[in-house]
Amino acid sequence: MPTTSTTFNSPPQRGSGEGVSPTSTTFNSPPLRGSGEGVCSGEGVFISRHFTLAELTRSFTAQQRGLDNRPSPEALRHLQALVNRVLDPLRQLFGAPIYVNSGYRSPELNAAVGGAANSQHTLGEAADIRGATTGETRRLLGLALAHAADLGFDQLIAEECDARGFPKWLHISYGDRHRNQLIFTKR
Ligand SMILES: [Zn+2]
């Protein structure tokens, strides 16, 4: 159940383009633990125990269109905070892999995928995440809600929920604001 610190007073953000590309399953490859591969490019660098910079910046659209999706130092700091404060603790609670459909988006990439102009993805403050199945994603949502006060996320959006309330993915953000705001969008 939602905690008392969760608010429900914001309208859904429809059509914000937080969409999952059909290739999101390509993000499932396991991280290159300790191999040293890609260190020079930053690709294989772990920014936490569970998350690499690569999986937080990877984008099929950016690859297809040749868009530069490398985060600025400031965006990188935001990504690190998102991971440290929200994603890693959530991963520990979850006890299973969390897949990142979309993390950082350069302004060019964000425009290309139809993201909202002020999307927190462009600041490195947001990630779209899911579990291995819709049931696992629902479980992830439940954990995020149960621990909302501790995680201190800004926004949590349960995206494209079906009739049972199972979201396709979760948009979760961390930044200067700590609204602890929960939003549901329906399919
Ligand atoms: Zn998102």
Please write out the topology.
Layout: H1 53-57, H2 60-65, H3 73-94, E1 99-102, H4 107-112, E2 126-130, H5 134-146, H6 148-151, E3 155-161, E4 169-173, E5 181-186
Parallel strand pairs: 3-5
Antiparallel strand pairs: 1-2, 2-4, 3-4
The structure holds zinc ion.
Task: List the main descriptive attributes of the protein structure presented here.
Muramoyl-pentapeptide Carboxypeptidase, domain 2, 5-stranded mixed β-sheet, disordered N terminus, binds zinc ion
Q: Pairing-aware structural class of the strands and helices?
A: alpha+beta
- Tally of extended strands? 5
Give me the CATH fold name: Muramoyl-pentapeptide Carboxypeptidase, domain 2
Our measurement of the CA-to-CA distance between the termini, rounded to an integer number of angstroms, reads 22 Å
Percent helix, as a range, is 25-40%
Radius of gyration: 15 Å
Q: Give the CATH class.
A: Alpha Beta
Q: Which of globular, elongated, flat, extended, rod-shaped describes the shape?
A: globular
What is the count of structural domains? 1
Oligomer: single chain
- Tell me, rounded to a whole number, the average pLDDT: 81
Low-confidence stretches: 1-41
Count of runs of 4 or more consecutive helical residues? 6
What share of residues are in beta strands?
5-15%
Order of helices and strands: HHHEHEHHEEE
The CATH architecture name reads: 2-Layer Sandwich
- Strand arrangement across the biggest beta sheet: 1-2-4-3-5
